[in-house]
Amino acid sequence: MRLADLRKLSIKQNYRIHFRLQNGMECIVTEHGTAQVPALKGIPDFNLETELAAAGEFLLEPAAAASSKDAPRPRTVRRDELTAMTSGAGGAASARDEHDDE
């Protein structure tokens, strides 16, 4: 699972995906596919791909939850479950999306 996979999932499923970095900071992949580290104050001394590879737990927060009372609640998932979600979301649709760009 790569950062690009999380970005695609967050856009298609309208999630904010949170995971902890090894230095204690948190990375949030927004529903727009942007990876953000809110506590970052300067040039990072880490690589998000490497940090993602070390992460074992993720928080999936529906983006609609902030604006609606009836929206699904945030939930915590393990790496294997998120990997299954990204591979399922990336299958045929991903190949079709890449073909449309040509």
Q: Strand-residue fraction?
A: 15-25%
- Gross morphology is globular
Mean pLDDT: 84
Q: Give the biggest beta sheet.
A: 5 strands, antiparallel
Helix content: 25-40%
Strand order of the largest sheet: 3-2-1-4-5
In DSSP terms, counting alpha (H) and pi (I) runs of 4 or more, how many helices? 3
- Total beta strand runs: 5
Order of helices and strands: HEEEHEEH
Output the radius of gyration. 14 Å
In the predicted model, the low-confidence regions spanning at least 5 consecutive residues are: 90-102
Termini separation comes to: 24 Å
State the secondary-structure class.
alpha+beta
Q: What oligomeric assembly is this protein in?
A: single chain
SSE layout and pairings?
Elements: H1 3-13, E1 15-20, E2 26-29, E3 35-36, H2 48-54, E4 57-62, E5 75-78, H3 79-100
Antiparallel strand pairs: 1-2, 1-4, 2-3, 4-5
What does this structure look like?
The chain is an alpha+beta fold and 102 residues long. It has one domain (3-100). Helices cover 39% and strands 22% of the residues. It contains three helices and five strands; from the N terminus they run H-E-E-E-H-E-E-H. Strands 3-2-1-4-5 form a five-stranded antiparallel β-sheet. Strand 1 and strand 2 (26-29) form a beta hairpin. Helix 1 (3-13) packs across helix 3. The longest helix is centred in the C-terminal third of the chain and has 22 residues, at 79-100. The chain is globular. The two termini are 24 Å apart.
